[in-house]
Design brief:
There is one protein chain. This protein has 262 residues and is an alpha/beta fold. The protein has two domains: 207 residues, Rossmann fold (3-Layer(aba) Sandwich); 35 residues, no CATH class. 46% of the residues lie in helices and 15% in strands. It contains eight helices and seven strands. Strands 3-2-1-4-5-6-7 form a seven-stranded parallel β-sheet, sandwiched between helices. Strand 1, helix 1 and strand 2 form a beta-alpha-beta unit. The longest helix is centred in the middle third of the chain and has 26 residues. The mean pLDDT is 97. It binds NADPH dihydro-nicotinamide-adenine-dinucleotide phosphate. The site of NADPH dihydro-nicotinamide-adenine-dinucleotide phosphate has 29 residues, from helix 1, strand 2, strand 5 and helix 6. InterPro entries: NAD(P)-bd_dom_sf, SDR, SDR_fam. Belongs to the short-chain dehydrogenases/reductases (SDR) family. Pfam families: adh_short_C2. It comes from Rhodoplanes elegans. This is Short chain dehydrogenase.
Length: 262
Amino acid sequence: MDLGLSGRVAVVTGGSSGIGLAACRLLLDEGADVALCGRDATRLAAAAAELTARHGAARVLAQRCDVLVKAEVEAFAQGVREWRGRCDLLVNNAGQGRVSTFADTTDDDWRDELELKFFSQIHPIRAFRPLLDESDSPAIVGVNSLLAYQPEPHMVCTSAARAGVQSLLKSLARELAPRIRVNAILIGLVDSGQWQRRYDAAGTTESREKWFAALAREKGIPLGRLGDPAEAARAILFLGSPAASYVTGAQLEVSGGVSRFI
Ligand code: NDP
């Protein structure tokens, strides 16, 4: 199946690591030009170097940008405008989860988490809307979490925020129709930078393989392992591509079957 991504312009927030970087790789493989952002300039430069070594500098735009800083997101959009003049696909992927129960989540933690989850969608959508309007087949994909539907007490504020984001994306799918399609992927556990940091923080002597295998068992993942970032990226590409031209307001679970809801 041809996804129809060749010659398209895709923007990936948080494209310097994990799922976002995997999406950049696949988008370039499919023939799309890719603009990516992240906060850490060194990590971003490393990602850009990898992508341009394979696909050439002309097809990649890497711009440092914190999606929570409106002016930086607007500058990123301006960079893409000057580079290609339009955006066919916006992937709102930047972010991370917060591990905390209600008892150990302060009011400031709540504010930070709600700001991260909502404004990592709101700022890019506002800033890139005019560029999406320049496309003949525009789409937005929000990278969300299974926690939106299946909250976990040890990730209480992330779960609540994720449910709110899912509601936001559903509303946007109606408000932006019929011009712009808006869909979400729901991630379970994907072996990315986030999980590497948690493994490092655990300070365990156990090998990475054993630690991740034990994690998959503990979480009861039916497919028996964490996902690979490329597996999440493939779902992003499908929903964001012209091949999904009749899909909007939908969510695609990429979780190895860990959800328990119907
Ligand atoms: P990674 O940590 O590997 O990648 C996160 C990316 O987002 C990095 O490029 C990071 O770069 C960037 N980023 C984070 N905050 C900001 C910000 N404020 N502005 C711009 N860029 C930012 O994690 P994942 O690939 O796992 O995460 C991708 C998305 O998937 C996240 O939204 C995450 O919450 C979600 N998700 C992941 C799950 C998993 O199991 N992996 C589960 C559920 C959801 P930098 O730090 O340099 O800014």
